Amino acid sequence: MSRYVILHDRRLIGQTPFRTSIATLEVDENTSLVPVLTIITSLSQLDGTQGLFILCHGYAGVNNRGKACADAGGMGLQLGMEGIMHDNVASWRAIRGAVSNIVVYACGAADTQAGNQGTVADGRYLMGALAIYTGATVYAADRIQWYTTGGSGVIDFGAWEGTLWMFDPSGSSTPAPGNRVPIELSEI
Fold this sequence. Notes:
Helices cover 14% and strands 20% of the residues. It has one domain (4-187). It has helices at 33-47, 123-134; strands spanning 4-9, 22-27, 51-55, 57-58, 77-78, 101-105, 137-141, 164-167, 176-178. The chain has 188 residues and is of the alpha/beta class.
């Protein structure tokens, strides 16, 4: 029985942990998310999936020459062919009610730099929209997230960098800083 689903974009190098309580879906730049969202819903109907872990890169800011990452983000998630962006986040309503929590392990997913409110670089707005469309509580951080693969090759994000934010699916409250997610991937 898979009570949790990992959605892993293979551009994030490393392996996901193997446990019987986890179903892992691997995607890359050639994978459309449309059938993947259908699979997540089907898994939920089969076994009552509780949580979704998204492991991918976040789109981050760049310097003036566009050659280096900045510790800024909020411009979306590099996930599958489409990614999760401000202009397509509504497609995630396909899994509405399928999971109760979504934990996003990606750089700057919830980052909103001063002056970026209401723009395509408003990560808090994007993660809030993901919560509203899916009906799940979303957890994401506002800084670059460092990870290792250690000797085993298994992805380990360790402690959260920056502020971890919690986004309520009702959309009725502003995001709240959180101390921890309901369950970390490393705890399953």
